[in-house]
Design goal:
The structure is a homodimer of 113-residue chains.
Chain A lengths: L4 E9 L8 H15 L3 E8 L5 E7 L2 E8 L4 E9 L4 H12 L3 E9 L3
Chain lengths: 113, 113
């Protein structure tokens, strides 16, 4: 069964978010991308007032996104990669950085042929 | 049951992609965002050689992403929105623009509390 990519849909709960400094958050996401074997080709960050953030890196192999709701201690994480990459390596970096006490994970095979 | 957002995971098959002009693609994605009631706060585009593209818009209400594999006539679409938005309105715009002959759709409620 061929597929275009693997998409990890992750719910980080009771997560200890590092502060909402864009550079720090994006640095972590880029480290995650690198760990998976992906190349970053674009990035966006948005800070909510008074707290919370969204961060996305576009990859040559799809994308990684984070959306953080501090009021729920909830971080929505998507890791979608293709080719000779390993999205679980990116997940390890994000888990280490955001340290969720509970994590729900669904693996979706995208573009199944 | 409270939730943080709704994430539509869509597989567009046998899709007639408009050309890979970044401005045209991003215009469509922004129209989709607007239709859903979302506000665009960032964007990234990546063109593959010799063909194919990735496009993401970061929203104040999460994100919309497209990843296109022309060799499979396959477009991976994610529409993740929260608050008082309607992601299905964005889906209608994207369906109209990319005209897939087959479409698979999964609705994922993100951040279920």
């Amino acid at each position: 069964m061929k597929r275009a990519g693997i998409h990890l849909i992750c719910e980080f709960w009771q997560t200890q978010c590092i502060d909402s400094n864009p550079q720090k958050i994006l640095k972590v996401v880029k480290e995650a991308a690198k760990a998976s074997g992906s190349k970053v080709v674009g990035e966006s960050f948005y800070a909510f007032q008074p707290y919370g953030f969204s961060a996305i890196v576009l990859l040559a192999e799809s994308h990684i996104s984070l959306h953080y709701w501090p009021e729920f201690e909830y971080l929505a994480v998507d890791i979608f990669t293709c080719g000779k990459t390993n999205p679980y390596k990116a997940l390890e970096v994000l888990k280490k950085s955001f340290n969720p006490k509970n994590l729900q994970l669904v693996e979706v095979k995208r573009g199944l042929i």
